[in-house]
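Pilot study result, target chain (147 residues):
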Amino acid sequence: MQLQSFALEQYEAVVELWQRAGLVLSRSDTREGLRRKLERDPELFLVATNDDGQVVGAVMGSYDGRRGWVNHLAVDPACQGQALGSRIMQELERRLMNVGCEKINLLIEPENSGVQSFYRQLGFAACELIFMEKWIAPPQDAKKGVW
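Predicted structure:
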């Protein structure tokens, strides 16, 4: 398995992977949307390929200058259970740390809470999420024993 930064030429293969893995794609997952994403932080969008060059894993990471985000982590169903997802995430975390990121956030789609009506009034469609986070660097005052 080889892990490298995503290239736009891999767009169709990555979209097919996301679909095989059961991910729900959004309007921003177009070729143009991903091209714009590559302008911002291309080193955080990773693809894993097998020996035949087939895309078998991908994650679209991003960094907003404050937090890192994980989007669309997927491993081909035929390759699951081989720690490929863990390896992809480890590399993403390493790259996020290299740009100064201290915390990674990700969202998981489950059932949402009672704030749906508020967001619907603003034009949002309900997409129920679970928020998870992982600090990947100790706090500045960790030397004082404060976590």
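One observation from the pilot: The helical segments are 11-20, 31-40, 84-98, 116-121. A full batch analysis is planned for the follow-on phase.
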